[in-house]
Automatic annotation (TrEMBL):
Recorded name of the encoding gene: ybaL_2
Family: Belongs to the monovalent cation:proton antiporter 2 (CPA2) transporter (TC 2.A.37) family.
Lineage: Bacteria, Pseudomonadati, Pseudomonadota, Alphaproteobacteria, Acetobacterales
Protein keywords: Membrane, Transmembrane, Transmembrane helix, Transport
The protein's name: YbaL family putative K(+) efflux transporter
UniProt xrefs under SUPFAM superfamilies: NAD(P)-binding Rossmann-fold domains (SSF51735)
Places the protein is found: Membrane
């Protein structure tokens, strides 16, 4: 009888439970990560029944952690912060400082932590979950509006503060973390980080995009995806092994380097599935550390930690946004969506616990606060919006708000594409369309899946994005929500239909022109009533030859054109402007 490996059994069990409890969480309109935490708790050593292999799960979780930070680095764009820096930079910094101080006071009172560990404990209660915040705003249709832009800028500042904390944690955890040795430990950590950053940004900025561009030009999407994963984990491993920089922080820097290149959108698209799977394993490993005995031993501390999150994150964000002249309803939407903690709080708590900065029992209140705050997100959002309505009902507040209201939050300065055409495909057909638009100075952007074609287009001065337009991360770079026209010059009708459906979700009113090769493809593509034109090459060839024949045999041009138009209209499935 063949016996399965315990590690294989652990992997299958953990993924199956993550899937089950994640689906249950979504059924109750909760983020899947809540279900992942429950799955980890089910197979933890603190509950009866099956116990997953902690060491193997922890290894997989470390990979998930690296890919999670790599994804954050890929999506990190300074322009997102610059668009709202007058609000996000001071607001998020003050909010994190206030929440950290609140949490630190709780840590000092409950556990007797000295200043350093107390600050780390406080910071775990100060950082919102990007996944929960953005999903909450997306469900309300506000992610693309002022509330979404403020929240994204706020989250960027929080992410940067987490990165800074990851840099300082080794110094706090080291032998020289005492009052006399801390400056030397901080200096040593800063020098190691500076050496690593210099290597990544001077050498890696050139080498990684160059190497991955070669894989992209080979035409093998599998090799490119594998190259991206090797880049992320390889840089992270080198950071940990050679420079004593955390594995997660090394992956973040790799993501930033690739995100700066034109490979970033496709890299994000190709790794998003893998990142989500391993991130689920990370959250499962966090759930495995939840000890009910620790919660029962200190229920008051857990409740106070939850209160610190609601007040220090949600309440402080709402108050600071009002002070920073943000309209009350927008401030309430941002605060309600961000009044919780998640992945980065777990990350900090796990690294701090593994490094000996925090004792294991300190993780229980953090997990309890995260569970409670995520569960309460719908109620928190409703309460924040109710508070905004009460404030707006006050004549004194309305006059204060009007008198202090600042400039509206505008889109990021780099996002200048508006009322433009998105041309998908820059082959024989797409190049002609692009040249026609270019000659008349009309705004457009090209998405091209062939790396060589994309590079040739850029060399010719054509604004081009390399990647698969059927992937949301790639299409989003062309800003379909602000586009006026979508031209699908792809040879594959099914791929065109996928891109069209994706674009419709971002911009239901965008007009479209599509290429087809058969009557069946024409029928498929014209199911979308808003498609303005479906062009089938063989039909246009036949109509062109018919027009030439009629004129050559003596029919005047007007009558020939009328006949061609009548024939075109009689063809089945033909869409007209």
């Amino acid at each position: 009888m063949q016996h399965t490996s315990p590690m294989l059994a652990t992997l299958v069990l953990v993924l199956a439970l993550a899937l089950f409890f994640g689906a249950v969480a979504r059924a109750f309109r909760l983020p899947p990560l809540f279900g992942y935490l429950v799955a980890g708790f089910v197979v933890s050593p603190h509950t009866p029944g099956v116990v997953a292999q902690a060491e193997f799960t922890a290894t997989l979780a470390e990979v998930g952690l690296g890919l999670l930070l790599f994804s954050v680095g890929l999506h990190f764009e300074p322009r997102d912060l610059l668009a709202v820096w007058r609000i996000a930079l001071p607001g998020a910094a003050l909010q994190v400082a206030f929440a950290t101080a609140l949490g630190a006071a709780l840590g000092a009172a409950a556990f007797g932590f000295p200043a350093g560990p107390a600050a780390v404990f406080g910071l775990t209660l100060a950082i919102s979950s990007t996944a929960v915040s953005t999903r909450t705003l997306e469900d309300r249709g506000q992610l693309g509006g002022p509330a979404g832009r403020i929240a994204l800028g706020w989250l960027v500042v929080q992410d940067l503060l987490v990165v800074l904390a990851l840099v300082l944690l080794p110094a706090v955890a080291g032998d020289g973390a005492g009052a006399d040795g801390l400056p030397a430990a901080l200096l040593k950590t800063a020098l190691e980080l500076a050496a690593f950053a210099a290597l990544v940004f001077v050498v890696g900025r050139r080498f990684l995009p160059w190497a991955l561009s070669g894989l992209a030009r080979s035409g093998s999407r599998e090799l490119f995806t594998l190259g991206v994963v090797v880049s992320a984990l390889g840089v992270a491993y080198a950071a940990a092994g050679l420079f004593n920089v955390s594995f997660a922080l090394g992956a973040f820097f790799a993501g930033v380097v690739l995100g700066e290149s034109d490979l970033g959108h496709q890299a994000a698209a190709d790794t998003v599935g893998l990142q989500r799977v391993f991130a689920a394993l990370f959250f499962v490993s966090v759930g495995m550390s939840l000890d009910p005995a620790a919660l029962l031993a200190a229920p008051v501390v857990s409740l106070l930690a939850l209160g610190a999150v609601l007040v220090g994150v949600g309440g402080a964000t709402f108050a600071l946004l009002l002070v920073l002249r943000v309209e009350a309803a927008t401030a309430a939407a941002v605060a309600g969506a961000m009044a919780q903690i998640g992945e980065f709080s777990f990350l900090l708590a796990k690294i701090a616990t593994d490094g000996g900065v925090l004792p294991p029992e300190a993780g229980a209140p953090v997990l309890a606060a995260a569970f409670g705050a995520i569960l309460l997100t719908p109620l928190t959002l409703r309460a924040a919006l109710g508070a905004a309505r009460l404030l707006r009902a006050s004549p004194r507040f309305r006059s204060w708000e009007v008198g202090r209201r600042g400039r509206p939050v505008r889109p990021p300065p780099g996002a200048v594409l508006r009322d433009h055409a998105i041309l998908v495909g820059h082959g024989r057909v797409g190049r002609v369309v692009a040249e026609a638009l270019r000659r008349h100075g009309m705004p457009f952007v090209v998405i091209e899946g062939d790396r060589r074609n994309a590079e040739h287009a850029k060399a010719a001065g054509v604004p081009a994005i390399w990647g698969d337009a059927a992937r949301p991360e790639v299409l989003a770079a062309a800003r379909p929500e602000a586009a006026r026209l979508l031209v699908l010059a792809l040879p594959d009708a099914e791929e065109s239909a996928r891109v069209l459906a994706l674009a419709r979700r971002a911009n239901p009113g965008v007009a479209a022109a599509v290429r087809a090769h058969s009557d069946g493809e024409v029928e498929l593509l014209t199911r979308d009533a808003a498609v303005g034109l479906v062009v089938m090459g063989e039909r246009e060839t036949a109509l062109g030859m018919a027009d030439f024949a009629l004129r050559r045999l003596g029919l005047d041009a007007g009558a020939a054109q009328d006949t061609v138009d009548a024939l075109r209209a009689a063809m089945p499935g033909t869409a007209v402007p």
